[in-house]
């Protein structure tokens, strides 16, 4: 009897142990987004990408092509992680965990869906993420796209027919502006995005090296809200950045500022930001 009890205890301990497997070599969790408890990394990749299609709508067949109904195209550093979730947990529990985590980080949700509202899991797995393990049961799936500071995020979780659950996390970090990239943008296009507060240093160098050049600092705010409030907030952001340039020694008459609120004429994934334009 005692031998049987010990055997049962051993099997119970083993069942808990196998829930947390080893991560693939060289992988890591993203900053600020700890993994769902006891899950482990089965796929990991990090690379610079010229374009990423961030889904902001469900998967649909549009003009014979399977793609998100709505999307935003962005570029930067892509951190792509696939987690396996212990079989004792459901995609709904995983979704609630990440949703609460994003709320605590004050992320801006661009789009979210669940079950068949998202479209076909086969389409998400094979047409969007191109990861076969994500092909699961349609009614078990959840998706979120969000802005998290200077990062954009795509989250997807689903349970397969064999009851294995997976989490896909794609994080795209907007590239920090450099002196060379700023000059290239302004010379070739006449406009450049200001992604980070540190972007002021490349712009300062540009203004000092081009003493006659005047610039327009533009602010935008595409969040949900009253139009007049968004225009006012974007104008305040543009004025604040202009004031920093003036405080660093750039003549005020060389700088103009404008806030356009949500009326941004160019496609941009982030909901709030600045740009610089030569004039």
What do these coordinates show?
By secondary structure, the protein is α+β, with helices and mostly antiparallel strands. The protein folds into two domains: 22-173, no CATH class; 179-278, 60s Ribosomal Protein L30, Chain: A, CATH 3.30.1330. It is built from six helices and twelve strands. The protein has helices at 2-17, 91-104, 121-129, 179-188, 200-209, 227-247; strands at residues 40-55, 59-62, 65-68, 71-85, 108-114, 142-148, 151-159, 165-173, 191-194, 215-221, 255-259, 272-278. A six-stranded antiparallel beta sheet has the order 1-4-8-7-6-5, with helices on one face. Strands 9-12-10-11 form a four-stranded mixed beta sheet. Strand 2 and strand 3 form a beta hairpin. Helix 4 (179-188) packs across helix 5. It is elongated. Residues 1-19 have low confidence and may be disordered.
Most strands sheet = 6 strands, antiparallel
Runs with pLDDT <50, length 5+? 1-19
What is the helix tally?
A: 6
Mean pLDDT: 87
Q: SSE order in H/E notation?
A: HEEEEHEHEEEHEHEHEE
* Envelope shape: elongated
Helical coverage, percent range: 25-40%
**Could you give the count of β-strands?**
12
Amount of beta strand: 25-35%
Tell me the Rg in angstroms.
23 Å
Total domains: 2
Describe the structure concisely.
By secondary structure, the protein is α+β, with helices and mostly antiparallel strands. The protein is 29% helix and 34% strand. It folds into two domains: 22-173, no CATH class; 179-278, OmpA-like domain (60s Ribosomal Protein L30, Chain: A, 2-Layer Sandwich), CATH 3.30.1330.
């Amino acid at each position: 009897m005692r031998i049987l009890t010990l055997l049962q205890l051993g099997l119970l301990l083993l069942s808990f142990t196998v829930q947390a497997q080893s991560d693939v070599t060289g992988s890591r969790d993203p900053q600020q987004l700890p993994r769902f408890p006891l899950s482990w990394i089965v796929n990991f990749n990090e690379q610079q990408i010229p374009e990423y299609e961030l889904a902001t709508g469900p998967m649909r067949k549009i003009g014979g092509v399977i793609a998100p109904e709505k999307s935003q195209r962005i570029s930067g550093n892509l951190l792509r992680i696939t987690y396996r979730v212990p079989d004792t947990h459901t995609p709904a529990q995983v979704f609630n965990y990440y949703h609460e985590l994003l709320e605590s980080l004050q992320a801006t949700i661009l789009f979210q869906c669940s079950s068949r509202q998202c479209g076909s899991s086969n389409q998400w797995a094979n047409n969007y993420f191109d990861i076969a393990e994500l092909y699961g049961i349609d009614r078990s799936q959840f998706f979120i796209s969000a802005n998290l500071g200077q990062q954009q995020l795509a989250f997807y979780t689903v349970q397969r027919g064999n009851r294995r659950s997976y989490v896909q996390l794609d994080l795209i970090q907007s590239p920090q502006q450099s002196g060379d990239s700023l000059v290239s943008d302004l010379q070739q296009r006449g406009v450049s995005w200001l992604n980070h507060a540190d972007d002021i240093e490349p712009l300062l160098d540009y203004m000092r090296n081009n003493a006659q050049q005047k610039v327009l600092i533009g602010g935008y705010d595409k969040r949900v809200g009253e139009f007049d409030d968004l225009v006012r907030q974007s104008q305040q952001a543009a004025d604040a950045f202009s004031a920093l340039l003036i405080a660093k020694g750039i003549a005020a008459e060389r700088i103009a500022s404008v806030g356009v609120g949500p009326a941004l004429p160019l496609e941009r994934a982030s909901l709030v930001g600045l740009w610089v334009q030569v004039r």
